[in-house]
Amino acid sequence: MAHELISHPFFQRLRGIKQLGLTSLVYPGACHTRFQHALGAMHLMNQAVEVLRHKGHEVNEFELEAAECAMLLHDIGHSPFSHALEFSIVPQLSHEDISAAMMYQLNSELNGRLSLAIAIFEDSYHKKFLHKLVSSQLDVDRLDYLRRDSFFSGVAEGAIGVERIIKMLDVVDNDVVVESKGMHSVEKFLIARRLMYWQVYLHKTVIAAEQLLVNIFNRAKQLSSQGETLFGAEALQFFLTHDLTREEIRKEENLYKFSTLADSDVDGAIKMWSLHPDKVLSKLCKKLTARHLPKIEISDSKFSGERVQEATLKAKKLLGLNDEEVAYFVQTDTLVNKAYSLTGDTIKILDKTGGLQNIYTASDMLSAAAFLHDTTKHFLCYPKELLQQE
Amino acid sequence: MAHELISHPFFQRLRGIKQLGLTSLVYPGACHTRFQHALGAMHLMNQAVEVLRHKGHEVNEFELEAAECAMLLHDIGHSPFSHALEFSIVPQLSHEDISAAMMYQLNSELNGRLSLAIAIFEDSYHKKFLHKLVSSQLDVDRLDYLRRDSFFSGVAEGAIGVERIIKMLDVVDNDVVVESKGMHSVEKFLIARRLMYWQVYLHKTVIAAEQLLVNIFNRAKQLSSQGETLFGAEALQFFLTHDLTREEIRKEENLYKFSTLADSDVDGAIKMWSLHPDKVLSKLCKKLTARHLPKIEISDSKFSGERVQEATLKAKKLLGLNDEEVAYFVQTDTLVNKAYSLTGDTIKILDKTGGLQNIYTASDMLSAAAFLHDTTKHFLCYPKELLQQE
Amino acid sequence: MAHELISHPFFQRLRGIKQLGLTSLVYPGACHTRFQHALGAMHLMNQAVEVLRHKGHEVNEFELEAAECAMLLHDIGHSPFSHALEFSIVPQLSHEDISAAMMYQLNSELNGRLSLAIAIFEDSYHKKFLHKLVSSQLDVDRLDYLRRDSFFSGVAEGAIGVERIIKMLDVVDNDVVVESKGMHSVEKFLIARRLMYWQVYLHKTVIAAEQLLVNIFNRAKQLSSQGETLFGAEALQFFLTHDLTREEIRKEENLYKFSTLADSDVDGAIKMWSLHPDKVLSKLCKKLTARHLPKIEISDSKFSGERVQEATLKAKKLLGLNDEEVAYFVQTDTLVNKAYSLTGDTIKILDKTGGLQNIYTASDMLSAAAFLHDTTKHFLCYPKELLQQE
Amino acid sequence: MAHELISHPFFQRLRGIKQLGLTSLVYPGACHTRFQHALGAMHLMNQAVEVLRHKGHEVNEFELEAAECAMLLHDIGHSPFSHALEFSIVPQLSHEDISAAMMYQLNSELNGRLSLAIAIFEDSYHKKFLHKLVSSQLDVDRLDYLRRDSFFSGVAEGAIGVERIIKMLDVVDNDVVVESKGMHSVEKFLIARRLMYWQVYLHKTVIAAEQLLVNIFNRAKQLSSQGETLFGAEALQFFLTHDLTREEIRKEENLYKFSTLADSDVDGAIKMWSLHPDKVLSKLCKKLTARHLPKIEISDSKFSGERVQEATLKAKKLLGLNDEEVAYFVQTDTLVNKAYSLTGDTIKILDKTGGLQNIYTASDMLSAAAFLHDTTKHFLCYPKELLQQE
Fold this sequence. Notes:
The structure is a homotetramer of 390-residue chains.
Chain A: H1 2-7, H2 9-12, H3 34-54, H4 61-73, H5 86-89, H6 95-109, H7 115-121, H8 128-134, H9 140-153, H10 162-167, E1 169-172, E2 175-179, H11 183-201, H12 204-225, H13 234-241, H14 246-249, H15 252-259, H16 263-273, H17 279-289, E3 295-299, H18 305-319, H19 323-326, E4 331-337, E5 348-350, E6 356-358, H20 359-362, H21 369-372, E7 375-382, H22 385-389
Parallel strand pairs in A: 2-5
Antiparallel strand pairs in A: 1-2, 3-7, 4-7, 5-6
Helix pairs in contact in A: 3-4, 3-9, 4-7, 9-11, 12-17
């Protein structure tokens, strides 16, 4: 079944969606795609299940195939540029919502053969541990993307011991746990994940570029809502003028429209939009195309109203913008590097006597502030031209 | 100056051009771009010059900068999908021709500061060895792309000892030579290059996909020449309807048009063209989008007229095509894996007494048939549907 | 001068001393030697000084050479099996004491040319930052051994970003500091170091083997002190019967004796001693040779007197040992994984405004218990035969 | 059974025998041991058999275990320093002879349970393809040692695609063959092997060191035969005075004596022998210990009688040696880098139609002179002091 899914246009489209959106503007090697990640995650699921079987936990062939397909499809609903445009193309829906819609569509095309995969994905199957492998604080999704993103970005310090962690997995009380011998490797996984957030996922230049992209999309939507017809593929034009609801996205026709969108549609449109008569749209598009990214300042505390106001006024004056327009050029918002979640699907360490402990208690590393609280940083983003003025 | 060049739109466009065209259809990791390769080649040039300086050969700062810029720009004129569309978008010109045109344009924008780089690139500078580093049978271009393509495709056997080869370089009589201690590393470089040709650059599935892409372009051009306006960015539409000459491409306006083209324009257009009423165009586009690639047969000898005729007739009948149309679906042509060139810019080995020898004579590996003659293979390419008929 | 030092018998002997003592019994790849580490540390010193020079800190050629030689020699005084026999062969002296003695000897042979290296090593030179590179919580010694030990043991998770850390070094107020961009890499270095302690340096099976080795040595010394002449090279016999003081080791004759000792002398002797009539010595030696290592239990709390007594009694009975003899077979002691030291040579982070902060405060990772307090574990070690009895 | 064998003293001794003898004098990382190689080769055998099973060839559990044990033991009879002392410690017997003797001994200790492994090893089992995996021009022995020696020596260019080659293996007519898709990988394996011979196995400085070691042993044997008792472990002394025959080595007592010998015994003895009154022995030993290796000249043609005579006379005069003694200091001999053997166990390529071809014919690389004929080089080795005289 995996083979049929991989050949399906819903899946082949992932070849055209970069795993890390605009990150290649900072780390040029990070051109890898969701296609690679989905295949990799499926492969790790296979390895994880083999380890569990070897330790005496029964997983039959149907369950294995379903778990593999769940991994193959877990990110199928991503928009072009992945997270960067997640709430821009379909503003009301997360990529998980769209993934679910696509899985249901595929299930109907496959005459229900995906039902078990969906049950595992949605955690309605009684072998709960399979869902834990698909989605939890230590799932094969994270194992694959951390290793892959570290490899392609070249940030070698994000490397983790995937093989070792998988070998240490076990099942107790229907839950995935880690043998105590693997505790240090899991600690290292948590630490590497946090490092990857600061060095890659929340890299300030990447955030600045993403702000620009989102603003472009917002402006394009606004112009479209005013009746402008912007250059672009039919599907792109459709999504510029329709904010689909959860019910609407589930319609076959809309899903297939969505499924034709890839990074290239956005890239191509932005180049053409840079010639558009709307000053705001063309300016934003020119900046992204030429990699003239906004200046971004990062701070542990909120930027004061005065500071933001000052940047806004300067931008208005310098770029000749009105109040509505300047909002596309100056933004302030937050970045959050998540702590380890102490409740819910915690990571459990299995000691030799069969006892289970939350890794948070078992480890003397996770008492660090970094894992106790989410770390929130604030940013202020504005055109670089403002600096040259001073 | 390198910094100015990198920021220029001519160079930034390389971010959107995959180094290996459609190869990622076979090796999903091969999403790396010409942008990465150009930076890498510049870096190796810097290392090579440092080695030569260390061995007493004078290269001043201007010459080093010029040599670096020559590497940065050596591939600047590549079309979208690199070699795959090399003679489709601008049929009369090679990427080297367009690179030259772009360098001249940049030189005029930089008030002549690129003149030395161009002289080195065109081999009109008296320090001939600098040109040899830019372009020869053992240039830093090849050193970079072999290592890079091997890394991103995952074909680890193509790996070469770049650092070691560079350390062994020297200059004798204004020519780049290799110390005899480095001979085995150069042998291995030649062997790895040949292996990369068979495993990657001439991989049969990649060739099949490229055939499809070229046919799409040919059809689109034909329709355009008949007055059809196909979906696409303005620049794409321009090149569909104009076959520029060497003189025309040198016009600033045309170069800037060309410089807006990237893989995404072609990707986006092909998706839209798959809905076009022209049966041939839409069929070809659908096949590429869905990765339904042609069947390709490889043979050491030429395919007989009968064999080609048979495939042609079948395709006509099965797909309902006329004589003109079927030519877009059935092709036969050759693949050539180049031998080591015995004349011209041979690779010279420097022995301890100061004597020079063509590596071809010095090595007992290069007497292999593989290096003596170009290896030519023939392929026949036709729709996979023909097989299911039998 | 480095070349002269490397050729000296004091240095060549390091070829015969494994970096990690008996660790190859657990990680078979860990056969690397002190020779490799010393060369690697010298190389990193060179790189670090180049970075500092590049940032405007003057280090002249003599200082660079001296700093390199300090690294080359920093471990020159290690005993066979490195730390494992550190206080067995010369019980009263640490390897640093012996290193110092050897450096003084070499300095006299080199007519004082090592004086600057010694001054840097002993922190009496006014450019204090050079000493910091030689010895501190973030010195090139640690950078080299962590990477090297991780590589050869195959514990890939101990890998650290050596190049990046070195690039981030700077000097402020005569002290080595780290640019704030490098903070996460240093965090990761501290974390990797701790992980290497648990997975490699304090691996329980390695500790068990080292206990055995130390007991063999103790017994051999005791027998020697009773007038027995044990098999072995002259130098080994000398150290079995002489506990040198700091003054004595500084005598040229004794240093040269010491410098002939390598792992092979101990290996060879132990094989012969396994045939010795003394029951204790032969039994211990047979166990090590056959890799029949003691059982070792690890606990967070101290083993009770009863528990130790019980093991002791069992061992006496089972192996037919008297009170004095049993002490060679049953031991309890502690393992300590050091915290980050909050005082003294702390690691300082340099922010963009030039401010300095202890990494302990700057980082939200080091608040973990693991870095606050030394982690002490207790072990109890006894013959495996005792288990089969139960 | 593998576990029992690994625990046996015959196998544990391999921990003390370096895979590449004295090579670490040139490549300091090459400290890896026969122990690692034997485990690695067993592991690859397991992988190879899994691949063959997957392709439908039956290998039952007993056969798999036997094939694994054959790999585990294939090098069990190596002397200290592996090939370097192969015909010095037991002059009449190759390491294969001694391996066979040890296997028979182990088989008798295991009550015949090793019989199948021995049958496979000796090629008397009807499933001939299992022997081919153990020993042929493309066996798992070579796959392991090439990769391992390349890794630890740091000669990265010797790296080969072990996983890919193993995946391409198949069985036809009871013989191991390679699918045609794997041909380039096998070519690369043959090329890498040849490169490793020149860069590592036949490295001139390694050869010079080995000459020294062999001469030391020859002198020690001569002195022993004259009634001298040299320092050393009992087993070493035994082999210095006994040249065992094939029958004698098979005696349990002699095998156990041999099995106590490791590199350390030789290392330790040589250090003590450097103090011996015999001028020849002490001089040779001092040279090796201090890494004062002989000068070695390499030539494509034989050294003339005059040239050798000249070196001999100089050495006699300079070092005060008589005719008999000088033979320990001046030698001439040959180095052979083997071609691909065209007959016997050739490597067969399986094309898609089921046809088989000798890779020599199938490949256009192996027509190189390097694979057609053995390459023979000549060396002349003499004390470095002779050079300073001139």
